[in-house]
Amino acid sequence: MNIKINIYKILAFNIILLLAGGCTDDFEEINTNPNGPAKLDNIGPLLTHAQQNIYAPSRFVTWRENVIFGSRFAEHWSFGFQGTWFANASGFQGGTDWHYGVWDDSWGLVNAVSNNNIGDLAELLRLTGPEGEFASEADYGVVLIMRVMLLQRIADNYGAIPFSDGGTGVAKPVFQQLDEVYPLMIEDLDRAMNLIGNATNSGLGAADQVYGGDYQKWKRLANSEKLKLAIRARSASGNNFSNQAITEAVSSPLLQSNDDNLVIQRDPSLTALRQGFANIWSFGTGGQWVMAKRLVEHLDGTVLGTPDPRLAQYADPAVNSGNYVGQEVGLDASSPLVTSIDNFSTPDATIVNQDPQFPSYVFTYAEAEFLQAEAALFGMGGTNANAHYQAGIRASMEQWGVSEADIQVYLASPAGSLSGTQEDQFRQISIQRWIAAYTNGSEAWAIVRRTGYPVIEDKTDPRFFDTSGWADNKLPQRLLYSTTEYTLNGKNLESALQRQGPDKMTTKLWWAK
Prior knowledge:
- It is built from 19 helices and 6 strands.
- It has helices spanning about 25-30, 45-55, 60-75, 95-105, 120-130, 135-160, 180-195, 215-230, 240-250, 275-280, 295-300, 310-315, 350, 365-375, 385-400, 405-410, 420-435, 440-450, 485-500; strands at about 75-80, 260-265, 290, 315, 345, 360-365.
């Protein structure tokens, strides 16, 4: 496959920063680490570190959050083969420490409380704020955008979060429900866009791993993130802000092309713990995965009636048959359907290659177009849902290196245009968003939970592993909070759960269908 990737060399460093917690005349002297690094000349190294952790997270988070949880729950990938390490209880009964670790690793970037690490984002906000050493309204706006995107991901995985208190040094931050968090995130994005204003280039260059210091691309990303948040909350109970936010977002610049994609290149020169799919794949059969039957059948024409040229970019044929074969998700390891990995399609080699490594696609132009299609479909801005729908399909196919001829054939097919009732068209848009979110498991899982498409049936047949007491043989709705949070901030967490619902995988989030 042919994916155009801008490769930035990662700045290697080991940085320890102290978060200010009081004011004394000799504060700086008292709090200086004699063994620490020299004072920063600019925010570049810390910004790079934060972006790598947020957008291209560690092997632990990539493996658990993206592969084992998100991509499997969304039925993009499966572990239904002999020799896997992740059959049956993994991700359910056997995976609670993975739920906890994803929370601790992610939240440590925001706040100093949950796992006793200083959050990169908290320090960046201090450094670029009005009293910071590198005060800059535009840079502060960029960091606000990064903070919102990380917290949105955490909230969509778990539910209530300490949004307002996070990173402020509050010892026991108060958890806020999603119906409060979502409008606050939109407020922060509006603030960030206002702070960036007409600024053009930060001068940080490659230290900004996302956009090379282009402030206007950050601004378009913020507006696209605003649209996504508002669309996600569109049908949620008690929502009274999304209609206005959607209307505002679609009337301002959004991601304009695949050049605006938020994509972070993985660097094979980094430690294995900082690498992505390739490092996980290198563990051999036990750590690997195969294509899910549901995704393959949406791409091979079985479900949508038209073969999708992205199938050859997403997957390699099964070794034994030479055909594209997906496996069901959630099978009991004792089922006769669980056979050799060579009987199933695996991810395309480019996704699991060691060098060059496959990048992390976080927010794409294709997604921005599908969001606009939904807004137009429901009369919230724009007038041509089908044009945005087709633009989204084209953008996704171009991102994955599909030829122009194949794109035109697909767009000319029934699957390439919206048709039917409003609900039929909503299903089409949702399924194409789900297909386009391939390799971004958390987002694909959120799409399924929020829209109900594609429909993922309950796993009650004997061929499936019984997840009673955990996911209760249904589509998992969320991850479990960390025991660290119960230990350090249990009272506030328990208070949040009284309103949100039990800390179980079956508890639906505020915006879930």
